[in-house]
Specification:
The complex is a heterodimer of chains A (250) and B (259). Chain A has 250 residues and is of the alpha/beta class. Chain A has seven helices and ten strands. Chain B has a single domain, classed as MetI-like fold (Orthogonal Bundle), CATH 1.10.3720. The chains are: A alpha/beta (250), B mainly alpha (259).
Chain lengths: 250, 259
């Protein structure tokens, strides 16, 4: 899926909280249309890593820079979407209004919004729930709302922070397949953070393995396993074991 | 199933009110209470006649409308100020640092305690009454808007920002809708506090209104009139609360909808 064009370029990203060095001089690139997974030991600063990428709230870089299309990140300008660990559908909007939110903010024409929302609801299987409010939906449906809302704006870059961490396995498999289908369909660049190694091997084209704090990049692993992938396949398990060995801290 | 429960509830409600009137009738017929207190029939008779025979300058509907106007003006102005101040305190550290201490100091003072000062500054005209009703509403709305704004889920704000929402739009699209249920809960309490405050305000220096009716009854030892005033106040208070709940159900259906 990925081309040779660089979408995201991170150079010397460093983050300190007071004297505590959390991210230590991290540099990497993500190609356009690539699916990159980031894994690391528990508490290694994966979320800080992602927060720095998105400059959310107080997370300004201590030093280094992040470029999208060779320009510094600007959320008003770059079309970036973010799917959180927690369910983040707006509770006062219906499923349909939630999915349309980003498109309305970007002032797209009404006809386009309608068409895109219909398409996204169809892809995540929520068409018949379009008029429901979030408090009427199950956990997996809520996360599908967030996914549909993110893909609806056709983001150049989609950041996902352990989006399926709170779901049971069968739902996770289903949503992972949904995600892959949307990614292949839209060609969006994805950075996916997870602590679940199997998930990373299942989804990614490349895996970035992080070290313990202060966090750096331990290794980059290219994942060329053919799709659709099979978690019982020998090559799949070899790759999973390899990544597991890399993040072992015990 | 739900209809059956609704029916049961109605039966119980009617039975409870009937029991209350029977008890009242019994006490005012067969016990020494009858020396001082009118019975339900007497009160209902006066209530009905007051629809066409003026009490003071107006029939009862006139008094009611005067009181309602005072409540609604005070309540509306106070609600707008309260929402703005509450959300400002909940979202800006500066506003919180400046206004919260003053607010906390004034909050426990009930509207009745303000009567003398308000009359001193604004006289005994309508303005004083609006202000007293407003004081009753103001603290509840402000406090709820403040807590609501403080508890807006930061992830929702982050999410809206990521999707390109400007800072100004975040206020209207995320913060305000997010605290609407809290604000409404505050407004419900505020409306009844305002309604209580108008009676207090009308008992001092008014010529019309429900509070004035009670005061007039009290001054002329007309306990029947006092009780008519009380019943009207109870009924209107109940209607206002129901009205607020209906509006809330429409505006905040996402928050109270059953699964």
């Amino acid at each position: 899926m990925s081309s040779n064009e660089v979408k995201v370029k991170v150079s010397h990203m460093t983050k300190k909280f007071g004297d505590l060095l959390v991210l230590n001089d991290i540099s990497f690139e993500v190609k356009k249309g690539e699916f990159l997974c980031v894994v690391g030991p528990t508490g290694c600063g994966k979320t800080t890593f992602l927060n720095c990428l998105t400059k959310l709230g107080v997370y300004q870089l201590t030093s280094g820079e992040i470029l999208i299309n060779n320009e510094p990140v600007d959320l008003q300008k770059h079309n970036v979407a973010y799917i959180f660990q927690e369910y983040s559908a707006f509770p006062w909007q219906t499923v349909e209004e939630n999915v349309a939110y980003g498109l309305k903010i970007k002032k797209r024409p009404a006809a386009e919004i309608k068409a895109r929302v219909d398409e996204m609801l169809e892809m995540v299987g929520l068409t018949e729930y379009r008029n429901y409010y979030p408090n009427q939906l199950s956990a997996s449906m809520l996360q599908r709302v967030s996914i549909a809302r993110a893909f609806a704006v056709q983001p150049e870059l989609l950041l996902m922070d352990e989006p399926y961490g709170q779901l049971d396995n069968s739902l996770r498999y289903k949503l992972e397949d949904d995600l892959l289908r949307l990614w292949q369909h839209t060609g969006t660049t994805v950075i996916f953070i997870t602590h679940n190694i199997e998930e990373a091997v299942y989804l990614s084209e490349r895996i970035l393995v992080l070290t313990n704090k202060p966090t750096g990049i331990k290794q980059e692993i290219v994942n060329n396993l053919p799709r659709p992938r099979d978690v019982t396949d020998v090559a799949f398990n070899q790759l999973r074991d390899k990544v597991t060995d890399l993040i072992k801290w015990w | 199933m739900k209809r059956k429960i609704d029916l049961e509830k109605t039966v119980y409600a009617v039975a409870a009110i009937a029991f209350f009137f029977l008890l009242w009738g019994f006490l005012t017929t067969f016990t020494p209470v009858k020396e001082t207190t009118p019975g339900p029939i007497e009160v209902l008779q006066l209530l009905v006649s007051s629809f066409y025979t003026p009490i003071g300058s107006k029939v009862i509907v006139g008094h009611l409308l005067v009181s309602l106007r005072r409540v609604l003006v005070g309540f509306s102005v106070a609600t707008i100020i309260g929402i703005v101040l509450g959300i400002a305190m909940g979202t800006s550290r500066w506003a919180e640092a400046i206004f919260k201490p003053i607010f906390e100091l004034l909050r426990p003072i009930p509207p009745i305690a303000w009567i003398s000062l308000v009359i001193l500054f604004f006289g005994i005209g309508e303005t004083s009454k609006y202000i007293l009703c407003g004081i009753g509403a103001f603290t509840n709305v402000t406090l709820n808007a403040y807590t609501g704004a403080q508890n807006v889920d930061p992830e929702l704000i982050g999410c809206a920002r990521m999707l390109g929402t400007s800072e100004r739009d975040i206020f209207f699209r995320v913060i305000l809708p997010s605290c609407t249920p809290q604000i409404f809960a505050g407004m419900q309490v505020a409306l009844s506090t305002s309604w209580m405050a108008v009676l207090a305000a009308e008992m001092v220096g008014a010529q019309e209104g429900c509070g004035w009716m009670i005061q007039r009854g009290s001054d002329t030892l007309n306990i029947t009139l006092v009780m008519v005033g009380m019943i009207v106040i109870g009924l209107v208070g109940m209607l206002l609360a129901t009205l607020m709940r209906t509006i809330e159900r429409r505006l905040c259906s996402w928050n109270i909808m059953e699964n």
